Amino acid sequence: MAGRVEGKVALVTGAARGQGRAHAVRLAAEGADVVVVDVCGPLPDVSYPSATEEDLAETVRQVEAHDRRAVSAVVDVRDLDGLRAAADRGVAELGRLDVVVANAGICSPRAWDQVGAEVFANTLDVNVTGVWNTVMATAPHLVAAGGGSIVLVSSAAGLKVQPFMVHYTTSKWAVRGMAKAFATELAQHAIRVNSLHPTGVATPMGEGDMQATLGAAMAGDPRLAPMFSNLLPVQITQPEDVADVVLFLASDESRYVTAHEMAVDAGVSEF
Ligand SMILES: NC(=O)c1ccc[n+]([C@@H]2O[C@H](COP(=O)([O-])OP(=O)(O)OC[C@H]3O[C@@H](n4cnc5c(N)ncnc54)[C@H](O)[C@@H]3O)[C@@H](O)[C@H]2O)c1
What we know:
Blueprint (H helix, E strand, L loop, with lengths): L8 E5 L4 H12 L3 E6 L14 H12 L5 E5 L5 H15 L4 E4 L14 H29 L2 E6 L12 H21 L4 E8 L10 H10 L20 H12 L10 E4 L7
Parallel strand pairs: 1-2, 1-4, 2-3, 4-5, 5-6, 6-7
Helix pairs in contact: 1-2, 1-7, 3-4, 4-5
Protein name: SDR family mycofactocin-dependent oxidoreductase
GO molecular function, one term: oxidoreductase activity, acting on the CH-OH group of donors, NAD or NADP as acceptor
Family: Belongs to the short-chain dehydrogenases/reductases (SDR) family.
């Protein structure tokens, strides 16, 4: 039986680990070749460890284990020229580009009065400008391919307010708006653009130090703790739970889904 994205080529940012790796590997398992992009180096302001080039090589290995081709690039999504070069090389080697998952992001929770100008700017640079750069570097290839699907990774924090994240919440609401704006203008090229809104996910970002950092901020106003409660009886979701939904948005099964806010949030946004 043909895979659900057989013959397509995808580009995933933040693909060295976590959700980005899960997306790349899930798409490969269903027949896509993949361009995997990651900075593989220090991330500004965050309390969790950085990804490495070995992590990105492991993603390539897992894609190739599905007999699909992978092209990898160590690029910071803040670098538009670097992203263009990676996308162009990917298309030169893999022949086309149909699917883009703008997944790279950072999160550094802290109380509102602990968010300095530099922290605010860093989060907006990676989470908003980095996503815009990703679309600008790749959309021309989707136009050339005659259509495609772009998924912009936001967060439940882009659907509802999440406390102790003024900078992150601002960035993820911006991504939600950006998806609709691109969807409007790219529709004439048969390109769909949707935003994706996960709740907490078990990745280096979502676990460990992050929980401790959030807990420390919460001590400043414990009344707000229930805002992180999922409706469904799950504490934290897995990267593969999100990858299943990315696969749906990448595939032709969602061919008339665009400008949509896709929540994979266990109902946290309704709590
Ligand atoms: N983990 C969660 O609880 C959660 C919840 C909702 C949304 N999200 C969002 O999901 C996305 C993926 O997060 P994750 O949980 O897999 O985190 P993660 O930290 O485990 O992985 C993120 C990857 O992105 C890369 N990256 C970060 N900044 C980059 C840059 N400037 N250029 C290139 N690569 C960069 C990192 O090196 C890393 O490999 C992010 O956009 C995040 O905001 C995460």
